[in-house]
Amino acid sequence: MINILSVLLIIIIMQTLDKTLLGLIDLSLKDENDVTKWVKNIPVNGVKFCNYYLKNDFKLVANIELDNDVDRNGEKKRSTVIKFVPILESEFIKDSEYIYLFTIDDIIVKFGGCRNGLKNRIGSYLCGHHVIERGKSGKMSLTNAIVYHTFEDYLNRGKEVKMYAHELEKVSVKTIILGEKVEFFPQVYHVYESKYIDSFLKKYGIYPVLSKNKDPKYVTNIEKITSDSKNKKEVKQNLKKIMESMEKMNIQMKLFKKEIKLS
Question: What is the pTM of this model?
Answer without folding.
Answer: 0.69
